[in-house]
Design a protein that fits this description.
The protein is mostly helical and 713 residues long. Helix content is 56%, strand content 5%. It starts with 5 loop residues before the first helix and ends in a 7-residue tail after the last helix. The N terminus is likely disordered.
Length: 713
């Protein structure tokens, strides 16, 4: 996202790809500042901002980040090749320039965003906000997001207001490692007495191809993590670096008609990516070649002097200004988007409100560019001193990390106090008893649990890490109860089976049963392929289900308790046929367990919310009714179709049973977020441990009925 150093901005006059006479040794081409690169930066930030403000209108606008990567790779590499790292002093000088250029503005935004998050965002996300400010300040935000990206239960969390620092983290890591690699290559070549004209092409090509190959493979394996990690992204900066290496070697396109074709084709590739890519596009992987090669083509064309190029479109003052402040716009726009609904106290921000927010972003960007970026870059007392530049770095890090650390410490104290609250879920009118018992009607118990407590109030199976998460290669079984128990129960399904574990395990402990878990995230228990966007994940989910069914059918279980959220599409099945196909598949699975000698208890899935319930309750503590969910299914919330429940209902009898407690969760078409004093879910649709225990009578009765007549039950 960063603009080049001043010295680099004017030394970019000769991209790239067919052989020409080399530039005279020891001389650097001088050129006016390239307006095409500034304009390309303006295009990139516009795509990103439009995508984040109106994601349904520009579904692939995220490729603007990839354009930025190419620009940064080109400018930084060209600078390093023209001014090679010859000593430790050169290296420190290079890093000092990056510090002055990037760190102060990023720190100002981090500190302001931290304060705004603590004021306006719900308490439930304060700790995570502080943690991500620290990760962003240290430029490891991309790795933090990668570590949590495969956690299905975290996918509905409120976006962090500093999440966009992931791409800045990738670039900063590049700026740290890249001069070391090129400097080492320069020293080796000089030691061998060879020219440094072509070796950078070889080194950069090898690294870029290796990263591209890894990116293509890892995106197929785990697209969620692949999106953030540096190893899958460095090839995009490498595309720009290769272009710079070609310039350094004296290669360029000279024929005007070729250059015209390059610039227009490059722009078309970028814009086509922005309008045709979606969230379902496996990315980065090979898909990212289109916008990155497009950006490289635009840079290679050197179109500032082309009459048939787009110079009239992007040489205007507004476009050049936007390119100049693009780094500041990128820094400010995302916190504004995240915070706006809370500042306005309106979950749905109108288009005109978004325009006002965007205007505020531009004003803040202009101010921070003038009074932070430029001031730190060009103040002589700082710019002329490498030592003072690193003092500036220390001050910035101390400010952002220190303030975030204090906020995190205070937040954790608050969370610890909240977690210490103990509620008896079996008390009269608590939890679902508010609907179960007629005399509780109209009784207000207040808030017996708080949002911070609810967000952490997860069943024991979460603490025991009983999940088989993406990429679905693990085979984890958690066992509870005596090995020689007279009754063996298997709990099978995805995370919506896990939410029932507290009352199931409580009943099992009371009666001396053994319970084994076969739980995955998202991968629901059918015998047909579930689609996850990649063939690798699809096959892994199928293999996981096959393994679980084989273990259960041969494990001598007396009862199989099943529950699933049937959310993901089925591979090769039209959306209109999904429910019917899944119902038939569930039916075969249930029949297989019965034929193996087990009984089956299916538990109908619970209604879901469109947002994190604890976050909503924290935001609207004065009116929690705003967090209620209509029972009608609306695509992102409500009571979703449950083909497992449908399949079980069609087979109910001695061997197959169905438990449906929807009437205890919803009343008169509405499902409250707080029921009988308890916050219902710890996220968008998984019951808290405390709330699920208020369903113990229903679950225990269903288990006993399903095992009626079984010896020892």
């Amino acid at each position: 996202m960063a603009a080049p150093d001043a010295s680099s901005a004017t030394a970019t006059g000769a991209p790239t790809a067919v052989t020409a006479r080399p530039a005279p040794a020891g001389r650097t081409a001088k050129a006016a500042p390239r307006k095409d690169i500034q304009a390309l930066r303006a295009v990139a930030v516009t795509l990103v901002v439009l995508y984040h403000f109106w994601p349904q209108r520009l579904t692939g606008g995220y490729v603007g980040v990839d354009v930025f990567f190419v620009i940064s790779g080109f400018l930084i590499t060209l600078h390093l090749l023209e001014r090679p790292i010859r000593s430790g002093a050169d290296l420190l000088s290079f890093w000092a320039r990056r510090v002055r250029r990037l760190i102060p503005a990023a720190t100002v935004v981090l500190v302001v965003t931290l304060g705004a998050s603590l004021v306006w965002l719900p308490q439930t996300v304060h700790a995570r906000s502080a943690q991500e400010v620290i990760a962003s300040a240290l430029y490891v935000e991309n790795w933090m997001l990668a570590l949590t990206s495969t956690d299905y239960l975290a996918t509905d969390q409120l976006h962090s207001a500093t999440q966009h620092y992931w791409s800045l983290s990738v670039e900063e890591q590049f700026y740290i490692v890249w001069p070391l690699l090129l400097g080492l290559a320069f020293l080796v070549v000089r030691r061998l007495g060879r020219s440094f004209r072509f070796p950078p092409l070889v080194v950069i090509s090898a690294l870029t191809l290796a990263s591209l190959a890894f990116s293509a493979w890892f995106t197929g394996e785990d697209a969620a993590q692949a999106y953030f990690v540096s190893t899958t992204r460095v090839w995009e900066l490498g595309i720009g670096a290769l272009l710079a290496a070609a310039v350094h070697a004296g290669l360029r396109f000279r024929v005007p008609v070729v250059r015209v074709g390059l610039v227009w084709a490059g722009l078309a590739a970028i814009l086509w990516s922005a309008v045709s890519f979606t969230a379902a596009t496996p990315f980065p992987g090979v898909a990212a070649l289109l916008p990155t090669l497009g950006a490289a083509a635009v840079i290679a064309a050197r179109s500032d002097d082309l009459a048939a190029g787009p110079r009239r479109l992007w040489s205007g003052r507004a476009v050049q200004w936007l390119g100049d402040v693009s780094y500041s716009v990128y820094l400010w726009h995302w916190p504004a988007i995240v915070l706006a609904p809370f500042v306005l106290d309106d979950d749905s921000v109108a288009w005109w409100q978004k325009l006002l927010v965007l205007a505020v972003v531009l004003v803040l960007s202009a101010a921070s560019k003038r009074w932070v970026e430029d001031l730190m870059r060009f103040t002589p007392s700082i710019a002329r001193s490498t030592g003072r530049s690193f003092v500036l770095l220390a001050v910035c890090l101390g400010l952002s990390v220190g303030l975030a650390g204090i906020a995190l410490w205070q937040t954790q104290r608050t969370e610890a106090a909240a977690a210490a609250v103990v509620v008896d879920s079996s008390a009269p009118c608590v939890g679902v008893d508010a609907f179960r018992t007629a005399s509780c009607a109209g009784r207000d118990l207040g808030m017996l649990t708080n949002p911070i407590q609810a967000a952490k109030d997860k069943p024991q199976v979460y603490a025991d890490d009983c999940w088989n998460n993406r990429p679905f290669t693990r085979r984890k079984v958690c066992s509870y109860g005596p090995k020689d128990a007279a009754v063996k129960v298997a709990l099978y399904g995805n995370s919506h089976a896990g939410q029932w574990s507290p009352p199931i395990l409580a009943t099992a402990r009371e009666r001396g049963w053994r319970v084994d878990t076969y739980i995955a995230s998202e991968c629901y228990s059918v015998d047909v392929p579930v689609a996850f966007g990649t063939k690798a994940l699809e096959d892994a989910c199928t293999a996981l289900n096959t393994w679980a069914r084989d273990r259960i059918t041969t494990g001598g279980y007396d009862l199989v308790v099943m529950s699933d959220r049937t959310l993901q599409p089925l591979a090769g099945v039209p959306a209109a046929r999904k429910v019917a196909t899944a119902k038939a598949a569930y039916g075969r699975v249930v029949d297989g367990f019965v034929e193996a000698g087990a009984r089956v208890l299916a538990i109908r899935d619970t209604p879901g919310s469109a947002e994190s319930v604890p976050d909503c309750v924290a935001q609207h503590a004065d009116d929690v009714s705003r967090c209620a969910t209509d029972v009608a299914y609306r695509g992102t919330s409500g009571l979703e179709p449950d083909p497992l429940a449908d399949a079980a209902k069609a087979r109910t009898g001695t061997d197959v049973h169905l438990l449906d407690v929807t009437d205890l969760l919803c009343r008169d078409g509405s499902c409250p977020a707080v029921l009988g004093g308890l916050i219902t879910y710890f996220d968008h649709g998984h019951m808290t441990r405390t709330f699920s225990m208020s369903l113990l009578p229903e679950v225990s009765r269903a288990l006993r009925d399903a095992l009626a007549g079984v010896p020892g039950a």
